[in-house]
Inverse folding.
């Protein structure tokens, strides 16, 4: 699978660094670079990249507005947010705007490449450590509920799928969920692939947000 990537960052040196890392990898092609959100939208329309590597803090149109526009009008291009701080308000807002995940700018090259490939395959990317810290940081914004709501989507899940969703929302990787539930990692991956369409969600990130919004899992 050849993954076509658009780089969006207002710092040319960072874009150059990302380009060098990505173009050294087989199956990854950088189709363009943008210095702000507006230019990014123009290039998305022109090149239809598989993944948009998006900064959030840029002059003019920022990454949040650009992400929302891409998610609404160019669903084939998925956005991976890059941020300097893992508790960045802007990164959280970008997830809500439709980003498929986010990584830190100081992530290891292998982590960045793996994240891009994961996004291109249709899943979301938020490192477990960052998921937990996101929930801790934004717990005050989540509903104060002692149990699940009557959201009918949750009723579509089997008991095992509900367990998997709870562990996902706690920030566990597929391997960690497999260890907790005594199942194989492949089985967990299958459960995740069934959970998302049942809930009408695009990826793992949206599933985690839904679990907290409905009260299925509560912040510590």
């Amino acid at each position: 699978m050849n993954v076509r990537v658009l780089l969006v960052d207002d710092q040319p040196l960072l874009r150059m660094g990302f380009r060098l890392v990505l173009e050294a990898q087989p199956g990854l092609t950088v189709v363009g670079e943008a210095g702000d959100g507006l230019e990014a939208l123009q290039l998305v329309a022109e090149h239809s990249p598989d993944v948009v590597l998006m900064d959030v803090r840029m002059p003019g149109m920022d990454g949040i507005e650009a992400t929302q526009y891409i998610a609404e009008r160019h669903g084939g291009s998925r956005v991976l947010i890059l941020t300097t701080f893992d508790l960045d308000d802007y990164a959280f807002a970008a997830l809500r705007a439709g980003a498929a995940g986010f990584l830190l700018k100081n992530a290891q090259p292998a982590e960045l490449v793996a994240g891009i490939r994961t996004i291109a395959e249709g899943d979301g990317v938020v490192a477990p450590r960052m998921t937990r810290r996101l929930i801790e940081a934004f717990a005050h914004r989540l509903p104060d509920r002692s149990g699940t709501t009557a959201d009918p989507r949750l009723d579509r899940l089997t008991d095992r799928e509900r367990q998997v969703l709870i562990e996902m929302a706690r920030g566990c990787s597929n391997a960690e969920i497999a260890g907790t539930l005594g199942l194989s990692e492949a089985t967990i991956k299958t459960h995740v692939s069934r959970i998302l369409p049942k809930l009408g969600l695009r990826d793992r990130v949206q599933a985690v947000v839904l679990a907290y919004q409905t009260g299925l899992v509560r912040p510590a």
